[in-house]
Specification:
The chain has helices at residues 13-22, 28-51, 58-92, 101-133, 142-165, 172-196. By secondary structure, the chain is an all-alpha fold. It has a single domain, classed as Formiminotetrahydrofolate cyclodeaminase monomer, up-and-down helical bundle (Four Helix Bundle (Hemerythrin (Met), subunit A)). Helix 4 packs antiparallel against helix 5 (142-165) and helix 4 packs parallel to helix 6 (172-196). The longest helix has 35 residues, at 58-92. The chain starts with 12 loop residues before the first helix and ends with a helix.
């Protein structure tokens, strides 16, 4: 979690919900990343509670460490996405004769694509972690893993909706590259969910 006092992670759950509902930012990307964080937390819950009953379980410890790293990456994306969207809104409000407007719009458009796309890639890795976690999670906690994976998948899909909404203005080549990256992530995510036995 960020130590920056401006971070959305310092809001209460109710404050964050109200901000999503009533303010331009945080938008869909930040909300999707929070949902994915909660889903990953359920996967980690299964691992941690199982590990608490075992001793010297190096494999589970490694999975937890990997999951913690993914969580930190996703948590940062929550704030980064909100900042990227704020920058885009600020650039759009500049006067058309402002010499900085084209440059700021291009930079904001790039961030509004790359930030949620990187977060979506993190979600795909979290789904892969959920697959690896199945054999290391107690049977009574497997529902948490499955539910968490579905939440991560939903978060990934929502992040990609945001990515695709910002492709206008890209060259055909750049647009095609981003679309292929999205399709690859979605294909891998579907395969992970099939392995987990959850709807995708």
């Amino acid at each position: 979690m960020s130590t920056d006092s401006r971070s959305l992670w310092h809001d209460s759950l109710a404050e964050f919900q109200q901000a999503v509902e009533k303010r331009p930012t945080p938008g869909c990307g930040a909300a999707a990343a929070v949902g994915a964080c909660l889903g990953l937390s359920l996967v980690l819950k299964g691992l941690r509670l199982t590990a608490s009953k075992r001793q010297d379980d190096a494999e589970t410890a490694d999975l937890i460490a990997r999951g913690d790293a993914l969580y930190r990456e996703l948590a940062v994306a929550v704030d980064e996405d909100a900042v990227a969207f704020s920058e885009w809104l600020a650039a759009k409000r500049l006067d058309d004769d402002d010499e900085e407007k084209p440059t700021r719009l291009d930079a904001a458009r790039t961030a509004s694509i790359e930030v949620p796309l990187a977060a979506a890639a993190c979600c795909e890795r979290a789904l892969s972690l959920a697959v690896s976690s199945l054999d290391e999670t107690a049977a009574m906690l497997e529902s948490d893993t499955a539910a968490g994976a579905l939440m991560v998948k939903a978060g990934m899909e929502a992040l990609l909706v945001g990515v695709k909404a910002n492709l206008e203005g890209l060259s055909a080549e750049a647009r095609g590259d981003v679309e292929r990256r999205c399709e690859t992530l979605q294909s891998h995510a579907r395969r992970h969910c099939q392995t987990l036995g959850v709807a995708a």
